[in-house]
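Standup notes, structure subgroup. Blocker cleared on the uridine-diphosphate-N-acetylglucosamine input:
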Amino acid sequence: MGKILVTGGTGYIGSHTAVELIGQGFEVVIVDNLSNSQERTLDGIEEITGVRPLFERFDLCDTERTEAFFQKHTDIDAIIHFAAYKSVGESVQEPLKYYRNNLVSLMNLLDAMKKHGVQGMVFSSSCTVYGQPDELPVTEQAPIQKAVSPYGNTKQISEEIIEDFLKAGPALNAISLRYFNPIGAHPTGLIGELPLGVPENLVPYVTQTAIGIRKELKVFGDDYDTPDGSAIRDYLHVVDLAKAHIVAIRRILERKQKKNYEVFNLGTGRGVSVFEIIHTFEEVTGVKVNYVVTGRRPGDIEKIWADPTYANKELGWKAESTLGEALLSAWKWEQYYRDHLEKAKQ
Ligand code: UD1
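Run returned:
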């Protein structure tokens, strides 16, 4: 089938993608430095798939270590590169940490790709590259806007690095996937998002509030120019998102790309407000979420949702799950995980 290096494979999207890859018969090797994830995610992957992926813990910014890895695994066919820092707020406080980590690791991988005959890379990009678009839904042709945070800038620069790199090496291939807002967890509830400390993202904050770890959810602004005043995003189920990576990997391995560098939006095409998230969560779980409305969060945009037509047509991929299913899976995971933590303490 093929041997795929999944960097950041113990992380949120990486672990779900590893599960889908294994399910499709790919051999998976995970590299992660565990800076924002836990090794026991491998147990969850194994429990779901019956296969424990190979795992190596190291930092992809370490050039020599990365080179040694590729000398050992000479048969890697393609890379899915998730490993990166992703906190918008932290990136404003510590910009160099973000530029160094997110860009050096990418360049090390690209070097290795060329040197060791790896066919291509699927790169984790983000709808953050569009800023607040003038036209909605947003297509891949929308102009890239100046990034509001160093984190967002690392995604823009990474895409440029990849594109330039491929221009100089036309035999190499890559696909950037611009994710909208991934939420939810594997339906088994055995893997999911594991925010360290206080969550910054909406859905983990909702589930932690519902389970009683947080007193109340702060809704960042109800004075936006949207139907209910709260901000709008395009939330997609992480399992749907993971599946898109399999399609992208096949497209590279089967040489079906139209150009050696392609970009796709991955979203549902539907904009959902913060209040809708709260209400749908309450509806599907029967659990109330305490919330207060506070001021807007600096750097937040008002509204964005994807035009996923290109991915639908060209990749034959579509986000299938409903918002309710995604939120229910997030809740199942929160409960499983807390229960596990309690048991581990006893
Ligand atoms: C942000 C980044 C995105 C990044 C993602 C990764 C921006 C514009 N986007 O997405 O590039 O890939 O994080 O982590 O910086 N909200 C609340 N209360 C909360 C948390 C969030 O009301 O406690 C609201 C936010 O204001 C926003 C929505 O919920 O309207 C989603 O927020 P979040 O989950 O943090 O994602 P983004 O900000 O869209």
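Discussed briefly. The chain has a mean pLDDT of 96.
Next: hand off to the docking folks.
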